[in-house]
Amino acid sequence: MNCEARQQRFERIVFEDGLEALVDEEREHLEACAPCSSHFALLRQLIGEARDARPAPLSPQLRASVHERATRALRATDSNPIFRWEIAAPLAVALLALPIAIAQGWLWTHGLSYLLEPWLPRSVLTGLMVFYAASAALTLGGFYGSLPFAIAYANRNRLEAP
Question: Residue 83: what pLDDT?
Fold first, then answer.
């Protein structure tokens, strides 16, 4: 085992297992290897400092800022009507887009089949109609599927605004 692997093992021992997990071979290596010994000493020093650390008190400005943001967030959730502008506007646009897309698809497919029927076989026309309907459905599905994410993003920005 090289020194780098041993040092990683020492880190696991110090942070997870405790010093009792050191075996005799590792103790002998610590006595013989200066880099590993200094690394192990640094790890023990870090653990000691972490145990002795005391939390610092919050500044009054930070405490007031956190209190203000928490109060604003609680007010926003308490007075949260079901139908808000952030939700109603994208849904209205989506509902208006659906009949327009259906009408456009119907016009395109029937118009193309009427114009191209003398030159193209019926199977090619059917394939074009299916391709157009599938691409329109995927586009609308992506648009409708992104609405909840857009609404959640708008709500998060509104709540986090200073």
Answer: 60
Of the candidates 24, 5, 21, 23, the residue with the CA atom closest to the CA atom of residue 13: 21
Neighbours of 121 (CB within 10 A): 10
pLDDT digits 0-9 by tens, 82-97: 566 766 777 777 777 7
Residue 122 contacts residue 153 (beta carbons within 8 Å): no
Structural domain includes residue 65: no
The residue assigned the tokens 């040092």 is: 7
Range of the domain at 149: 74-160
State how far the Cα of 80 lies from the Cα of 13, in Å rounded to an integer.
51
CA distance 161 to 91: 24
Residues 47 and 79 in one domain: no
